[in-house]
């Protein structure tokens, strides 16, 4: 019956073994919720009777990430969409779980919104973009994801192109590209000043004037956004993630992450896991 109704509704059913004690209900309930997040992104009913192996990571590769950042920043929506399509195809081939698809979609959407906000796009237009990001949580198949990503990226890139065209500031574009691709390094204002043959004082004021944020705020935002993605989409430890986003001291990373998000990295990962299992249940 469920197969006959697949055009109207998609159902994933998780079934546990026999439960003989009331004390076992809570454990079984949470176990089943985690299994439903492992359901495949297929357009058919699924019966899940146990946990399965999932891909370790569902984020963009480092090379894809650099190209996505550069393409998004320059308003090249077609190339952005190609990279997203490649990532979605990879996840399908590796049979990623629906929870992993949602983590991936959330991380990409958050990054897009961050770049649009950094470009100082009007708040009303940003709110419109956030409507698309919320639509990603309702996607039931890969076709849904592709459609919503297309709408989000076409609108976002159009706004970014208009902002850069209005400013006609190639220097700020180059500066942001360095920050968005070399965040894992010990990047400093002095390094950028030397790279672009400018004084630190002038460069600091220039970045603030052109983007509305100072250098340290930009770096913190970029690193924290990447950290959120890695916490949601990979099984890396918090210490490994802190190093990958440019923090050599994990205490400093934990303190900054909590300051920005309001919760610790471990709590953030757990919250995303609970949200995923709730939405897939």
Give the SSE layout:
Elements: E1 12-14, H1 25-36, E2 46-48, H2 62-73, H3 77-93, H4 98-118, H5 123-135, H6 142-167, H7 170-181, H8 189-195, H9 200-211, H10 215-233, H11 238-244, H12 250-261, H13 265-280
Parallel strand pairs: 1-2
- Secondary-structure class: mainly alpha
Q: Which CATH class of the largest domain? A: Mainly Alpha
Query: H/E element string?
Result: EHEHHHHHHHHHHHH
Q: Return the average pLDDT rounded to an integer.
A: 81
CATH homologous superfamily title of the largest domain: Homeodomain-like
Total DSSP helices: 13
Number of strands: 2
**Number of self-contained structural domains:** 3
Fraction in helix: 55-70%
Side by side, the strands of the main sheet go: 1-2
What portion of residues belong to β-strands?
under 5%
Radius of gyration: 21 Å
Shape: globular
Distance between the termini: 20 Å
Examine the secondary-structure arrangement and name the CATH architecture of the largest domain.
Orthogonal Bundle
Q: Profile the largest sheet.
A: 2 strands, parallel
User: Spans with pLDDT under 50 lasting ≥5 residues?
Assistant: none
- Looking at the structure, the CATH topology of the largest domain is Arc Repressor Mutant, subunit A
* Multimerization state: single chain
Keywords: DNA-binding, Transcription, Transcription regulation
InterPro entries: Homeodomain-like_sf, HTH_AraC, HTH_AraC-typ_CS, Tscrpt_reg_AraC-type_HTH
Pfam families: HTH_18
Domain HTH araC/xylS-type: 173-271
């Amino acid at each position: 019956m469920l197969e006959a109704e697949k055009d109207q509704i998609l159902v994933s059913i998780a079934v546990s073994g026999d439960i003989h004690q009331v004390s076992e209900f809570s454990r079984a309930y949470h176990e089943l919720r985690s299994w439903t997040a492992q359901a495949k992104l297929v357009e058919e009913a699924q019966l899940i009777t146990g946990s399965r192996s999932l891909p370790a990571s569902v984020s963009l590769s480092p090379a894809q990430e650099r190209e996505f950042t550069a393409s998004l920043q320059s308003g090249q929506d077609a190339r952005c969409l190609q990279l997203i399509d490649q990532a979605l195809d990879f996840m399908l081939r590796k049979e990623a779980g629906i929870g992993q698809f949602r983590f991936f979609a959330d991380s990409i959407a958050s990054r897009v919104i961050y770049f649009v906000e950094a470009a100082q796009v009007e708040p009303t237009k940003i709110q419109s973009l956030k409507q698309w990001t919320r639509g990603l949580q309702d996607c039931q198949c890969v076709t849904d994801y592709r459609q919503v990503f297309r709408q989000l990226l076409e609108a976002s890139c159009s706004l970014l192109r208009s902002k850069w065209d209005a400013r006609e500031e190639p220097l700020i574009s180059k500066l942001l590209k360095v920050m968005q691709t070399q965040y894992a390094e010990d990047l400093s204002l002095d390094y950028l000043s030397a790279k672009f043959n400018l004084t630190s004082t002038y460069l600091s004021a220039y970045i603030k004037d052109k983007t509305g944020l100072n250098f340290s705020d930009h770096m913190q935002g970029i690193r924290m956004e990447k950290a959120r993605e890695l916490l949601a989409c990979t099984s890396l430890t918090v210490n490994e993630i802190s190093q990958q986003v440019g923090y050599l001291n994990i205490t400093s990373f934990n303190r900054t992450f909590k300051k920005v998000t309001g919760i610790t990295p471990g709590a953030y990962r757990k919250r995303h896991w609970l949200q995923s299992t709730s939405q897939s249940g």
